[in-house]
User: Fold this.
Amino acid sequence: MTETLTRRPVDSAPPPRQPTKKRRRAVAEEPGKPWMIHVPLFLYLLFTLIPFYWMLVFAVRPAGSTQLVPWPISFEHFDTVWNDIGFGIFFYNSVVMGLGVLVFVTILSVMGGYALARFKFRGQRVFLLAMLCSQFIPGAMMLIPLFVIFKGLGLLNSITGLVIAEVAFQLPLSLILMSGFIRNISVELEEAAMVDGCSRLRAFFAVVLPQLKPALVAVGSFAFIGAWNQFLFALMFATRQDKFTLPVGLSYTLGEFNTDFGALAAGGVVAAVPVVLVFAVVQRFLVQGLSAGAVKG
Amino acid sequence: MRTRTWAPYALIAPTLVLMAIFLVYPIGSVVYYSLQRYNVTQPWKNGFAGLDNFKQMLFDDPLFWQSLAFSAKWVVVEVGLQLLLGLILALIVNETFIGRGMARALVFSPWAVSGVLTTGIWILLLNPSTGIFQELSNLGIGSPGTSVLGNPDTVFDALVVTELWRGVPFFAILLLADLQSIPKDLYEAASVDGASRWRRFTSVTLPHLKDAIILSTLLRAVWEFNNVDLIYTLTGGGPANQTTTLPLYVARQAVDSHNFGYGSALTVAGFLILLFFSIAYLRLSKFGSRA
Assistant:
């Protein structure tokens, strides 16, 4: 599976046994009527895209304008949020946090995932069970003790503190996913390398790691997206404005009646563009990775 | 392969340390705080409270029961609709059609958007003066100046639709992944036997998806129960606490009132309720026993 993941071109070609639609129709499998796909898909696309479009329109039309197709485009709201409200700083903080979480979650989940996939050790079941159970622990409900811990460790108002907490919360699921990916890589090549005199570490870097690239992309990007979107911890543990991340900054521009919609929309675009782009690139890996059996561990 | 036994322990050691500090210890301290009077704004009153917090919660706090009831309604409606729409969406984008890759990327994209940003987007869309209802009324559809978020009759529907926008892709992604792992020959065999499209869906697709559906609804129910970002920023639990969930109530006890003792007692209650329902759900649905 991993082999096909790395080699497959961007859009997977239809299976060779159905070269054209006509031929496909001739086979016993009758296709659904086209409207059964296209009508609901079109409606759902409207539901998905109109909200995005609304934000974009508010972001690029001048204050006071009500055009639905704004022209000429104005960047005044971006100037306001980036320079006056401080989204430049929030953006920087979010990038630092996102990359920090990405690096640590990826490295630690490869280490732990390898241990789960390639060794049998005492306490393995307990470890796995503890990680599954941790998925039931609500982040919101951990706010109080975490606040006390953070205060004690001097981690309030620090991006480092946010990274550590977010890594701790994301790690269990990433680690389980990663162990599934590693289990799917055949162990024979690795054993052969070790018989030939490789150390386990060298065998890992030479044999396992290259095949793990799609998994690293998937786990790493989802760690980044999760960290980028983290709100409650960031809200609770950062009280100084120069330590705000994008979601926290954005939450201060919200309000249904008394708000600068242009600024809210421009801030939203700043927060949305990086994650939506990352997601658009990796969503294919997610579906393929999950269907490769990782989710069943 | 099983020689140096210290290796796996060294590999999981950093994870264990993190989990001990940020998961195990906090759970222990929540239980401890729940038995204490612990209010940051009134430190002179702090001390051992026994079960007072729980007594207050069960017998003297209508908002606890109200928030719990709303949480239940929220989870059932939200997860049910997300599953239904997510399944339909997964079936649609699993078909072969031109532009499928693009369609998948687009319909899945709200999954990557945070709760706060979702709130921002939908506040823009639903605002009474320049929102979608105003634009529609300009076209002669509906009445102008409708404030769906400020109106107690419509606020729940607005909240549900907003969360569906970013929640449906989660189910669609998971179920699509599982749909792709169904062997093709199963369908071919069913076709040869003369099974209709609907029959193939009920006797091949659904049984295969069973475990994925159980697992994803459970994960999602826990997640929606604990979902604070969206409701906190979109309605703040209002109007008049009408949309306050239990975790939102906890968050407000912690962030606004700094009443850590009582907030912790609410947390313990929420955790026990979740645990109970999760176990019951897995038992009743016979997870892992594929038909």
Chain A touches chain B through 109 residues (CB under 8 Å). Chain A has 14 helices and no strands. Residues 1-29, 293-297 of chain A have pLDDT under 50 and may be disordered.
